[in-house]
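From the methods appendix. Each design record in this collection lists the tokenized structure first, followed by the designed amino acid sequence. Records were kept in a plain field format so they could be parsed without special tools. The example shown here is representative of the layout used throughout.

RECORD:
FOLD TOKENS (218 positions):
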């Protein structure tokens, strides 16, 4: 079984959490599978709030109504992938660059179900370069502050987020205290969003593995 098959397993298992209303939908290759499965039960939901233009397009192509978060109110469920998860379900996200909208929709949802292949579970966050969305004029300033925190920021060139900002991918961080690191990076002027999801971690992690799905609950 390859990684994509494992992503599919996790994505399909998340359908069991869908129980009507408006649901939040994340971004990425695992979520793309989830959207395809969601389309098979679309009559069960009123619609979806999307975390990116890419997911919006995919849902629209399936005839899933996409709603504005301001009109939707608090959501019962958010389903999204991750680049890494620790055992407390603190995450690194933003490999696809959609971290800001993902963090907003996760924060607006009662339950966050994270779907991933088994390789994403780690003991300590940080092997995956940490994405940080930054206001363009602050790029160098933020990079210098990230170096002071021990990281090696690399500008994701030729990439602009859905919000018109840039991404710094921070290498060589060992994130021993995810909440503290999230707060410290959030406090740097010019940072829009840091891809640590620890203040609002996932509630449920569904991993696709060779042996089937494995579910971890916070
Ligand atoms: C996008 C994300 C994705 O959830 C993350 O990159 C995982 O992607 P994939 O499911 O393709 O492995 O945070 O901003």
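DESIGN:
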């Amino acid at each position: 079984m390859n990684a994509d098959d494992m992503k599919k397993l996790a994505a399909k298992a998340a359908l069991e959490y869908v129980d009507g209303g408006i649901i939040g939908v994340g971004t990425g290759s695992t979520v793309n599978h989830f959207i395809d499965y969601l389309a098979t039960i679309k009559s069960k939901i009123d619609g979806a709030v999307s975390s990116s233009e890419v997911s919006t397009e995919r849902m629209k192509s399936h005839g899933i109504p996409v709603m504005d978060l301001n009109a939707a109110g608090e959501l019962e469920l958010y389903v999204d992938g991750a680049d890494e998860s620790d055992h407390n379900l603190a995450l690194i996200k933003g490999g696809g660059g959609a971290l800001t909208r993902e963090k907003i929709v996760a924060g607006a949802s009662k339950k966050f179900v994270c779907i991933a292949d088994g390789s994403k579970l780690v003991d300590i966050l940080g092997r995956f370069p940490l994405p940080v969305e930054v206001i363009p004029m602050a790029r160098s300033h933020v990079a210098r502050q990230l170096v002071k925190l021990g990281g090696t920021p690399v500008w994701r060139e030729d990439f602009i987020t859905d919000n018109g900002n840039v991404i710094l991918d921070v290498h060589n961080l060992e994130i021993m205290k995810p909440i503290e690191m999230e707060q410290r990076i959030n406090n740097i002027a010019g940072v829009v969003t840091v891809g640590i999801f620890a203040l609002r971690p996932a509630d449920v992690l569904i991993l696709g593995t060779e042996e089937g799905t494995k579910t971890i609950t916070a």
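APPENDIX NOTE: The first strand starts at residue 22 and ends at 25.
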